[in-house]
């Protein structure tokens, strides 16, 4: 992160910081041949991001986030062999360690509600998180804060519809505060969904 540069919260890039509060919608798409994706749109129904799961043959799948021009801006990938559920975000379509931007991990191994601690790549010690996410019991709502403070920078609400219940086409309404990197916020919500859905799959297995 470039830090609170002129009161902006920049993680992926300054171009993703809007001077106004943003209302985004994330609609999930499940593909017939496997995998899933999301379309992320603003309040005017303009496409902001496209998110696609890339299935791996000999490795775990990863998730790519593309901007409106279809340029990859972030790659999300789970980290193997960790006590906590951990995901990493890299620049562009890379998964190289040198391109790591941040890591997100569950704050404890056993928790009734999902809580994520987010550490920027520059935070080597990971003693104190740079951001944190707290979801409610059903993971239908979540709040994202800076560090251990009560400073709220974004919120997500999941909308339950016939499509989401019967077809798995979840829809999320995301409010991002002004001057907060909305690409970063969207990526954290995707990671939350990955962690909670994998937990649901394992509990049903």
TrEMBL record:
Query: Pfam families of this UniProt entry?
Result: LOR
Q: Where are the transmembrane segments?
A: none
UniProt-listed SUPFAM superfamilies: Tubby C-terminal domain-like (SSF54518)
The text of the family note is: Belongs to the LOR family.
> Which PANTHER family is this protein grouped with?
PROTEIN LURP-ONE-RELATED 10-LIKE (PTHR31087:SF120), PTHR31087
The name this protein carries in UniProt is Protein LURP-one-related 10-like
Q: Which organism is it from?
A: Anisodus tanguticus
